[in-house]
Design goal:
Length: 110
């Protein structure tokens, strides 16, 4: 099939660069969709920025972990389902933090 070549306007390029530099809100879906996409495009277009994008996201996840620990400490033991929900979220974030450390090593070797 014939391919159609598209061109990104100046405003689109600027918004893309802004998006690339932004830090995503920490969450499993966001990390899977946005952060991996950012790292992919950065590795293709701005390889020197990959480490800073990764580090900013790792800091955001760490801050999210701290916030969840504070919230969990404030929920009374009688609110078991609220505690379980926060605990699940906290464990997901801790897993994301470990995973970000693992991929940092992998990206450094490429």
């Amino acid at each position: 099939p014939r391919r159609q070549v598209l061109h990104i306007p100046t405003l689109g390029r600027r918004r893309f660069r802004e998006w690339l530099a932004a830090t995503a809100v920490s969450g499993v879906r966001t990390i899977r969709m946005e952060v991996l996409t950012r790292l992919y495009f950065a590795s293709l277009l701005y390889p020197r920025r990959v480490a800073s994008i990764h580090d900013a996201q790792a800091r955001e996840v760490s801050q999210g972990i701290r916030r969840l620990k504070i919230l969990l400490a404030q929920v009374p033991p009688s609110q078991i389902y609220n505690r379980m929900s926060l605990d699940l979220r906290l464990k997901q974030m801790e897993l994301l933090s470990r995973w970000l450390r693992e991929i940092q090593d992998e990206m450094a070797t490429r």
